[in-house]
TrEMBL record:
Keyword annotations of the record: Membrane, Transmembrane, Transmembrane helix
Gene3D superfamilies: Endonuclease/exonuclease/phosphatase
UniProt xrefs under Pfam families: Exo_endo_phos (PF03372)
Transmembrane helix as UniProt keyword: yes
Stretches assigned to the Endonuclease/exonuclease/phosphatase domain: 80-421
UniProt organism field: Amorphochlora amoebiformis
Transmembrane segments: 13-33
GO molecular function (one): 3'-5'-RNA exonuclease activity
Region annotated Disordered, chain positions: 232-280
Protein name (database record): Endonuclease/exonuclease/phosphatase domain-containing protein
Compositionally biased region (Basic and acidic residues): 265-277
């Protein structure tokens, strides 16, 4: 038996050795993953790089705001749009999100740090919870010098009090008018001591395969803006029969007090004499549109008009397409997508939303669904708007941050990033207008 036992042991030796090698390799691989995940718990260093793209300075987060375009400068406007991911999000099927990163308090503290780093004049945020607004954002932003307006807080389609808002620096902008709807909020502001007016909208349009609903929401917003433009521009041409319609201007606004608590206040009725000879108003429409560039709602924004021949969204029966689809206004011309020119660079246009992480069974999904749209300085003859000149863009995430997201099982949100959307930020040059006498 002794020789047989030795022979049998010898025959099993290669198998045992192979198993040991495999176990060792697996252990090293798992250790390397844990090590890499540990490494990305710390926020990657923000790069300070900068690139010129057709006269626009494109900056990494560490170089924002860029030199020569400092914060709170007369004649410039720094605007941020960001879906901050609501506090009551359940993270269902988000296996890559560490448990300690899911509580709202953890993400909220990170959000505050990010918001403070932008030095922005205007924040257009989406997915803020109005029920907890004061402690989530109101008190913090009020301490930084911001007031706010919000969308309509009424319960609709299950989105109870999760709404878009606009924060604006009270020392730079004066609120003149405001209109909040279920999915959008638009405000009209006077810029500093000049007579310049600017309309700014924050949007969170319907998600999923709901192109008709998104289109209706976008069209409703443009009709609201069109109606307001006719009030502040008495010499505006009459509306098209298929275009704008009258809309009542609300007499009250939701505005943040210095203590960060929402309150209803009366906006002063403007003297018609004060509206005479105003310079052409400016327009910004920002937000999470839940839409690709070719979505009907984006075609409407980018063209300034829409007709049935432009609707080519697949998968919809004729009865699902909105009945009143034609839209044309002679006050609002085509809007420009601020980040569109980054598609011309070697790295391409950065995505604004990410689901999943490397190493999962399902592929990582990356989409461009967030936008900053503006009326540029080359408005066509159909528009009565003034023009903004784009001066600088902030990359949503630096080079080191993008590299960190390539690591196995590292996605967003995570230890150093609080949302599933990336922020957009742009600096615009305002047209020169005479100061108020």
């Amino acid at each position: 038996r002794y020789p047989e036992t030795m022979a049998s042991r010898a025959s099993k030796l290669p198998l045992a050795l192979a198993a040991a090698v495999a176990a060792g390799a697996l252990g090293i691989y798992l250790w390397s993953i844990r090590r890499r995940r540990k490494d990305v718990k710390k926020k990657p260093e923000d790069g300070r790089g900068e690139e010129d793209v057709r006269g626009v300075r494109v900056c990494e987060p560490g170089n924002w705001p860029p030199k020569g375009l400092p914060a709170n400068t007369e004649g410039l406007l720094n605007v941020v749009s960001w879906n901050t991911l609501c506090g009551k999000f359940h993270f269902k099927n988000h296996d890559w999100v560490p448990e300690e990163c899911k509580p709202w308090e953890y993400r909220r503290d990170l959000l505050w740090k990010y918001l403070d780093s932008f030095s922005a004049d205007v924040f257009c945020l989406q997915e803020t919870e109005l029920r907890n607004f004061a402690k989530d954002f109101g008190i913090f932003m009020a301490s930084k010098g911001y007031d706010y307006i919000t969308a309509d807080p009424k319960y609709r389609n299950g989105h109870d009090h999760v709404k878009p808002v606009i924060f604006y620096r009270r020392d730079r902008l004066v609120l003149k008018w405001y209109k909040g709807k279920s999915r959008t909020v638009v405000g009209e502001f006077q810029v500093g001591s000049s007579r310049q007016r600017i309309l700014i909208a924050s949007c969170h349009l319907q998600g999923g395969h709901e192109a008709p609903t998104r289109f209706s929401q976008a069209k409703s917003l443009l009709k609201t803006i069109d109606a307001r433009l006719r009030i502040i521009n008495p010499n505006a041409p009459p509306p098209d029969s298929e275009g704008s319609s009258s809309s009542r201007s609300p007499s009250r606004s939701r505005k943040g007090s210095k203590r960060g608590q929402s309150q209803r206040i009366e906006l002063k009725e403007e003297n018609p004499e004060d509206l005479k000879d105003l310079p052409p108003p400016l327009l910004l429409i920002t937000g999470d549109m839940n839409a690709f560039v070719e979505d009907p709602c984006m075609k409407l924004f980018r063209n300034g008009f829409f007709n049935k021949s432009m609707w080519n969204e697949p998968g919809y029966k004729p009865e699902q397409i909105p009945r009143k689809i034609n839209y044309k206004t002679n006050l609002i011309g085509p809007l420009t997508d601020a980040y569109e020119r980054l598609g011309e660079t070697k790295k391409g246009r950065p995505h604004t939303y990410q689901w999943g992480a490397p190493g999962m069974e399902l592929p990582v999904r990356k989409y461009v669904i967030d936008y900053i749209l503006y009326a540029n300085e080359r408005q066509d003859k159909t528009s009565t708007l003034g023009g903004l000149k784009l001066k600088a863009l902030r990359l949503p995430l630096g080079e080191a941050g993008m590299e960190a997201l390539k690591q196995p099982m590292v996605g967003i949100p995570n230890h150093w990033y609080p949302s599933d959307h990336f922020p957009l930020s742009a600096i615009f040059e305002l047209p020169r207008v005479p100061l108020r006498s």
